[in-house]
Amino acid sequence: MDLLADVLALGGVRGAVGARIEASGPWGIAWHRASSAAFYGVTAGTAWLGLPGRPSRQLMPGDTVLLPNGTEHTLRSDPDVTVSSYDCAAAEHARAQGGVLRLGSGTVQTRILGASYDYDPAVSTQVLAALPELVHIRADNGGNCLDDTVRLLARELAHPQIATSFVLNRVVDILLVQLLRVWLAGKPAEARGSWLGVLDDPLISLALTKLHERPARAWTTELLAQELATSRSTLARRFRAVTGETPGGYLTRWRMDLAAVRLRDTDETLDAIARSVGYTSVYAFSRAFRRARRRAPGQYRAQTR
Q1: Where in the chain are the domains?
Q2: What does pTM read for this prediction?
Q3: How is 258-285 classified by DSSP, letter by letter?
Q4: In this structure, which CATH number among 3.40.50, 2.60.40, 2.30.30, 2.60.120 belongs to the domain 3-188?
Q5: Does residue 85 surpass a pLDDT of 60?
């Protein structure tokens, strides 16, 4: 099992092409906070990215940036440029529809590809939520795969053909995985104590793989340690250090994520869902689900359909 792919799939992470910025001369734009994660890839020229409470950061050709929590931010030609009032409706339309946003006047000097990533709010185990506020991959650290994918996206946008929208959204999904690969390869301190830290620890990665493969099994820390040929104390210590929680706590959260999606998206009975995530009775499952989601399973199903 590919652990990262499993979490991305259940988390419903989906990308879509956003606004494409073509700018020249002094220019600037402010984006309001959004529910989606924001991605930018600079294909020509330079830009300055500004976040509240942070110094402006220069983006060079080939740089890619991910703002996982959709925080408000500015893009401008120079950190001292005043962000002018702009047609907000036109800007938001370009971001939502993947249109071209023309800023400034004269020959285009800067080109930036934009994309957004949404995820399923029913799932608590989210890759994007485990990332820092800003992930910046510089061109000289991006690696050929990430660079090539940004260029492929730019070419597809510049010369649309049949099924271009289908291709673009798949390429954007690939782009996220490649960005995560490059970022994690640098062993960032921000990954420790979060779900992403698991991917750099062979023992805990294998432990989570076993829990994901058989979530209905009556797992205990002792049983999981036996499966991994390690001691219970070693597993418990390493698991908490890497993920920030106990094996039992993680398993319960993952089970509730699986159950929440099935309650909303299927017509399976409560008994079938309960057994699929390791509960021998609807009563025990309902108690666990209510503790996790503050609603009974039946109520949750009715309200989220």
Answers
A1: 3-188, 201-304
A2: 0.87
A3: HHHHHHHH----HHHHHHHTT-SSHHHH
A4: 2.60.120
A5: no
